[in-house]
Amino acid sequence: MYSKSLHGGNNNPSNSSLNNNGNGSNSGFGTLNSRIKKATPLPITIAKKNAQPLLNAYGLPISAGGATLSRGNKNSNVDLTDKIRVCVRKRPLNKNELRRGESDITELAGKRTLVINEQKTKVDLTRYIERHAFTFDDVFDSNITNEDVYKRTAAPLVDYIFTGGKATCFAYGQTGSGKTYTMLNEKNGLYVLAASDIFSMLNHPEYVNIIPHVSFYEIYQGQLYDLLNARKKLFAREDGKQQVCIAGLTEYECFSVDDLMKIFGHGNNVRSTGATGANADSSRSHAILQICLKDKTKKMAVFGKFSFIDLAGSERGADRGDADRQTRMEGSEINKSLLALKECIRALDQVSKHTPFRQSKLTQVLKDSFIGNSKTCMIATVSPNSGSCEHTLNTLRYADRLVFNLYKHLK
Ligand code: ADP
Ligand code: MG
């Protein structure tokens, strides 16, 4: 169909040696306050000057999420080659939010801290703002382009897969916060930008034997569906060497961005049209686009791999006002996989610890990205409007848990 040969899935992960580089390579920790005070002054009275802690309306320190476990101060160099990177991206307010008169409650404080100004009401009905500050490897403001996000997230991972590594980029957040825009945007999602660099690298003579293969599938309610083969149900199996492979997964050889975009467009159409009728709403499924580099001199053994993952919306069914059984089941399945994902990413950083990848289909099929030579970048996407405050805080707390583990030992 795309003038490329089609292969049955023969996932054959290699490189299982443990590698714990990039762990905690940032140094020079500062306090939250030393960063926040440099930001534009906030229009609230509770922010104290200089080194005083930020207090809420009751005089208590703000619930600063990751603030006490920040990854370096704003002067320290962020290491783009870290094994795990956790970034946050906020989108602009959209027309509907503006029409409703909603305000932007998110505010950057320095380059790496996002402050959420939660609007609250005291018992005596006076209104006040509770500030929550979270610090990550990078925070991308609403005007930052996909190209710039790419440079600080996926681009360093492209180099990594050419050293034989497995790289994974996740977009995590509530529905409507910008996951697909970031990861699988047809024009300039991170997958397109990365593919362009990957195909350029493949022009180097030393990679003449490396053949890129593309697959695109979806996980809905713990079941795999091949988006490049009419949403055929697929099954993941673990072979004798404990390597997980997806039997019958369609893979296209692909050497140009144009080809990739055609393949992607086809799969994306299948995704949004809901061929089975069971999954009309793509926000309830995880979409996984993989570019797998295989070595034709080694029986197509996997040389390196890049996975781009557009996760299901992180909100629970109940929060969306959906009460039917199907939606609740979807919600619990999604919660299970997002929880397992968090545990697996955290385990990435601890060489000897067990990786609980069997706890969900998502983590099971990504097993080779959680062990051995692997690096992960999580991009948490947030909606800036006041109506999304609770979801935004939940997203940032989830992302913050990923950072937490990295710095526990440095406390
Ligand atoms: P999700 O996949 O998380 O449900 P989408 O990626 O579909 O959310 O984004 C929702 C809407 O917001 C889309 O119309 C998208 O074009 C727009 N959008 C998301 N992020 C940005 C951004 N950073 N800049 C401009 N528009 C954005
Ligand atoms: Mg989406």
TrEMBL record:
PROSITE patterns in the record: KINESIN_MOTOR_1 (PS00411), KINESIN_MOTOR_2 (PS50067)
Highest taxon, organism lineage: Eukaryota
Start and end residues of each Kinesin motor domain: 83-405
GO biological process, one term: microtubule-based movement
One Gene Ontology cellular component: microtubule
GO MF, any single term: ATP binding
Gene3D superfamilies referenced in this protein's UniProt entry, alphabetically: Kinesin motor domain (3.40.850.10)
Keywords: ATP-binding, Microtubule, Motor protein, Nucleotide-binding
Positions of region (Disordered): 1-32
InterPro entries per UniProt: Kinesin-like_fam (IPR027640), Kinesin_motor_CS (IPR019821), Kinesin_motor_dom (IPR001752), Kinesin_motor_dom_sf (IPR036961), P-loop_NTPase (IPR027417)
ATP-binding listed as a keyword: yes
Binding positions for ATP per the UniProt entry: 173-180
Keyword Cell division (UniProt): no
SUPFAM superfamilies found in the cross-reference section: P-loop containing nucleoside triphosphate hydrolases
Pfam families: Kinesin
Family named by the database record: Belongs to the TRAFAC class myosin-kinesin ATPase superfamily. Kinesin family. KIN-13 subfamily.
Name assigned to this protein: Kinesin-like protein
Organism ancestry: Eukaryota, Fungi, Fungi incertae sedis, Chytridiomycota, Chytridiomycota incertae sedis
